[in-house]
Design goal:
Chain A is α/β, with parallel strands linked by helices. Helices cover about 40% and strands about 15% of the residues of chain A. Chain A has one domain: Rossmann fold. In chain A, α3 packs parallel to α4. Chain B has a five-stranded antiparallel beta sheet with strand order 2-1-5-4-3, with helices on both faces. In chain B, a hairpin with a 3-residue loop joins β16 and β17. Classes of the chains: A alpha/beta, B alpha+beta.
Chain lengths: ~140, ~475
């Protein structure tokens, strides 16, 4: 039984919130957007760490080892897509699940045509609470 | 003249007459009689020209006088009144003693040749006119790239004269262009087309579509190349406008998506804040909504300014009053983000002539840019934005400073470009572009200094007086201003 399935079953059995026990890093340079994403996940019981630039994202992912990273592709301090590339190249982060949340749908090709493992999810802004949670559940392999 | 001679004489396929010293026609052939009628007792000038006196230049008289053959071209009128172009040849006839007794006059009908010549002349004139007046730049170059022929447009717009080199007059260069469509055509004998930018005598940049085509002689050798350049400056301008429009639509759609996203986020916070009875979250959601509504308003205002391309509506305004007004306008926004707004306004900065609405937009755009730069920076605990005003003899100077994220070199260089935004989903790339355009419309300037991680400073200089040519123009407030004010 995988780690994700275990958490999922435990949460459901205990009547806890759907994302209880899950650790997420949310990366977005736009403060309003970051607040929205983080609040939605926190409301579902997740533990959320917020990153506002590329370096902070790398730092938090390495120190917190989250179950999922939601990542904006264009982040200050790094080229577009660079953070994704660095994370995918990192052998210690082989299991990291990444859900891209970007305002630039045209970047999809850049990510999907690269030689790296594809992201587990890809959302284009604007995102609603429902689409966000659906994508995250899919990434974490949570099933009802 | 015996019968055989008479038959030959009559059968000659031209007009043949024999005349005496008095210019009487004493003999004529069949063809002459047919076309000119009776000749007995009449003078040649009466028959041929319907004149009452001898012609001023008479080849018959000349033949009598010098005993030589003579040849002239002239027009005669046959008995039906038809004009006939003829080549007249006269030959003296001598008696046994060598005395000239008469002159043979032979008229060959060359009317059709004359008509062809006239048609050719008219045709050449038409082609010349076409060449001269065609609304393109047309020149013919030799292998040394010297212009040997040119039309009026080339002479007038580029001051070209025969013998000058094309690259000198068209591009003000000292060496041939590379690539050179004319040179390529000389080389391979084919047509070559390129888009080029030429510089006229007056220094205007003219976008042209150049086509070079070979001109060959009878042996098929290339003796020259015709260069024809169609002025496509307006097409290019339209194209650029359409491209801008396309970019604008793309950019606005992108920004709207970001703003909608912000609104959706704000609404989520508001809604769940009420549900969970969390006043802090309600306040936070409300602020997000307010911020995004403010941004939508600013974006629409920028779009209106961009779309209208308006001239300043001049009035004399107090620089300090305007600066204070803008400070008050921005105070709430700065406080929302917990950014300190300093207003260092010299009350003695004085008046200046400007479009108050436009200058207000300029300053608001710069201040919003600074607030965003602070908001996006999480490296410092305290952020500050300052609006400064100083008055100088000829101009007023506004300064907008922040200690936000700062700009790298690329961002600095592109900061005032249309549709360039470093703010991801939030920016339309219109704000600073429009701020710069407003400064230019006032014959002023914006300078920018910035360093990543340290902050940014904008210095805006606006002249105290509007440009002289605009003083004469009326500056009545227009509907447009009202629309923007609204």
């Amino acid at each position: 039984m995988s780690k994700s399935q275990t958490k999922s079953h435990n949460s459901a059995e205990n009547g806890a919130l759907p994302l209880a026990g899950w650790k997420l890093v949310v990366a977005d340079d736009e403060p309003d957007q970051l607040t929205f994403l983080a609040t939605v996940f926190e409301d579902q019981g997740a533990t959320v760490f917020r990153a506002t630039n590329g370096d902070e994202t790398l730092e938090l992912v390495r120190s917190q080892k989250p179950d999922l990273l939601t990542l904006d592709l264009a982040m200050p301090g790094r080229n577009v897509g660079e953070v994704f590339e660095i994370l995918r190249k990192d052998p210690e982060l082989g299991d990291l699940k990444i859900c891209i949340i970007t305002g630039r749908p045209e970047l999809r090709g850049l990510i999907y045509q690269s030689s790296f493992r594809r992201p587990e999810g890809y959302l284009t802004k604007p995102v609603t609470e429902e689409t966000l949670l659906l994508a995250v559940r899919k990434c974490l392999e949570l099933h009802h | 003249m015996d019968d055989a001679d008479r038959r030959y004489f009559d059968a000659t396929p031209c007009y043949l007459t024999v005349q005496d010293r008095d210019f009487h026609i004493i003999r004529a052939n069949e063809r002459f009689r047919r076309d000119f009628g009776d000749f007995e007792g009449r003078y040649c000038y009466q028959v041929y020209k319907r004149r009452s006196e001898k012609c001023e230049v008479c080849p018959v008289e000349q033949a009598f006088w010098d005993g030589q053959n003579h040849r002239v071209e002239e027009w005669v009128t046959c008995r039906e009144g038809k004009e006939i172009a003829v080549v007249v040849e006269t030959m003296p006839i001598r008696d046994d003693g060598g005395e000239i007794t008469s002159v043979v006059k032979m008229l060959t009908d060359v009317t059709h040749i004359k008509r062809l010549e006239e048609q050719l002349r008219q045709s050449q004139q038409r082609y010349r006119l076409l060449f001269e007046e065609i609304p393109c730049y047309v020149s013919i170059q030799d292998p040394d790239l010297r212009i040997i022929e040119m039309n009026r447009a080339v002479r007038e717009d580029f001051g070209a004269t025969p013998g000058c080199r094309c690259y000198e007059v068209y591009k003000h260069r000292t060496e041939p262009c590379f690539p050179c469509p004319v040179g390529d055509t000389f080389e391979d004998g084919k047509r070559h087309t390129r888009e080029e930018i030429l510089t006229s005598l007056r220094g205007e940049q003219i976008d042209v579509l150049v086509t070079a085509a070979p001109i060959r002689n009878g042996a098929g050798e290339i003796v020259g190349v015709m260069e024809m350049s169609a002025n496509i400056t307006e097409v290019r301008a339209l194209e650029s406008r359409l491209t801008s429009l396309g970019l604008l639509i793309g950019s606005i759609s992108h920004a709207l998506k970001g703003l909608l996203n912000g609104l959706a986020g704000g609404m989520y916070l508001l809604e769940t804040g009420f549900q969970k009875e969390k006043p802090d979250r309600v306040r936070q959601g409300w602020e997000v909504i307010q911020r995004n509504v403010g941004r939508i308003k600013a974006t629409v205002s920028d779009i209106l300014y961009y779309a209208k391309d308006r001239e300043p509506i001049w009035e004399t305004i107090s620089a300090a009053e305007l600066a204070n007004e803008v400070c008050n306008l921005m105070r709430t926004r700065a406080a929302e983000h917990r950014i300190k707004l300093n207003c260092e306004i010299a009350p003695t900065a004085g008046d200046f002539e400007a479009d108050s609405q436009a200058v207000r937009s300029l300053l608001v755009n710069l201040l919003e840019n600074s607030l965003d730069a602070c908001r996006l920076d999480n490296k410092k605990s305290q952020h500050e934005v300052t609006l400064r005003l100083h008055g100088f003899a000829d101009y007023v100077q506004f300064g907008v400073l922040d200690n936000g994220i700062g700009m790298d070199q690329e961002t600095r260089e592109k900061a005032f470009s249309l549709f360039f935004s470093s703010k991801g989903m939030e920016g339309t790339g219109l704000g600073l572009f429009i701020a710069n355009r407003i400064a230019q419309a006032h014959r002023g300037s914006i300078e920018l200094e910035s360093q990543v991680g340290v902050g940014t400073q904008f210095v805006v200089k606006l002249p105290r007086n509007r440009p002289p040519q605009q003083k004469q123009e009326d500056s009545h407030p227009s509907d447009e201003k009202e629309a923007l004010d609204g």
